[in-house]
Amino acid sequence: MTDMSKGPTPIILDTDGGVDDALAIIMALNAPQLDLKAITVVAGNIDVDQAAYNVLRVLNIAQPHSPPFVAKGCEQPLVRAPFNAAGIHGADGLGELHRFTDAAGTARYPKLPLQPSNKDAIAVLLEAAHTLGERLTIITLGPLTNIATAIQRDAATMRRVGRIVTMGGAVTVPGNISAAAEFNFFVDPDAAQVVMESGIPVVLVGLDVAMKAPLPRHRVEEHLQRYPTQVAQFIADCTEIYMAFYRDNEGFHGCYVHDPLAIGIAIDRDLAQTEQVHLVVETEGRFTTGMALADRRDRRDEANNPPNVDVCLDVDTERFWQMFDELLWQASAVSY
Ligand code: BDR
Ligand code: CA
User: Fold this and answer.
1) Residues near 90 by Cβ (< 8 Å), separated by ≥ 6?
2) What dihedral angle (degrees, nearest 10) is formed by the CA atoms of 115, 62, 89, 51?
3) 258 catalytic, yes or no?
4) Which residues does a 6 A CB cutoff place in the pocket of ligand 1?
5) pTM for this model (two decimals)
6) What class does CATH assign to 9-80+118-213+257-334?
7) Packing angle, helices 19-30 and 230-238, rounded to 10
8) Most buried residue among 103, 130, 179, 249 by CB atoms closer than 10 A?
9) What would the mean pLDDT of 83-90 be, rounded to a whole number?
10) How do the domains of the chain map onto residue ranges?
11) What is the mean pLDDT of the chain?
12) Are strands 69-72 and 163-167 parallel, antiparallel or unpaired?
């Protein structure tokens, strides 16, 4: 469990503004164990401007008492061309919210005059690393371009960060965007490798655990009936296209909640069972770009390749779902 004796853990969330990112942001806002200082935004599921708008939309719906600072970061991966997931998260990256109207026919999600701050995400990350040092946890929910850019700009300052909890990679299971790679690592493998070899402690929340926690559609609908809040309506709406993708392609009507799981494990590290490994990311593979390759051999050379990542290999799903329900639906109903 998180040690609350020192107060909530200061965090920065780095996100690419997609559907499961939205759920993760709401969880983080409602978690008393976390002090969400800022949200930095990166291109991934959708372009960075739309991703930043999506984050602001989520904040507008969740109405936190003290909204975190939102700063836009990198528009494209370090080396490779941009690659998005609009086919999975919807054309706006957030389930195509313009489709929804209320009973009178008015838009449920009208366009809002929202703008992120003028401050650059990389500067925000470096300032937080400088000021908060090892108290700071960075939680990443998208490609690692912002974090890698901050490391390339000032590695010594970034090495002050306590830990990075990263949703990315697939170590013992197949990928999701290719046979070998998970989406966030696939989009920017070069950035992922910069982070893995940075020396900053990394907890990797990959598909190994994400695929153990499928959220069925009927639970979203049941929660909407039980807690008919604006947040519950938004959760039902923004997950519709995403869940239809899983219904049509993966054989279950629901979705994996990759990014919320990273929040859960950042809150309570004991939710997951981990293994310390030396892990690299394939940046030049013909078929394996973005593959997370962990050396799990008995005769691995720990002197030259010491463990650099704590990989989550199993998760207590029962406890995670309890936390998920509390922080998404129940907390939103209390503050409604
Ligand atoms: C990751 O890719 C994105 O589509 C999701 O938001 C999540 O961060 C899962 O592979
Ligand atoms: Ca994401």
Assistant:
1) 19, 96, 241, 242
2) 20
3) yes
4) 18, 20-21, 45, 85, 141-142, 167, 176, 182-184, 258-259
5) 0.97
6) alpha beta
7) 150
8) 130
9) 93
10) 9-80+118-213+257-334
11) 96
12) unpaired
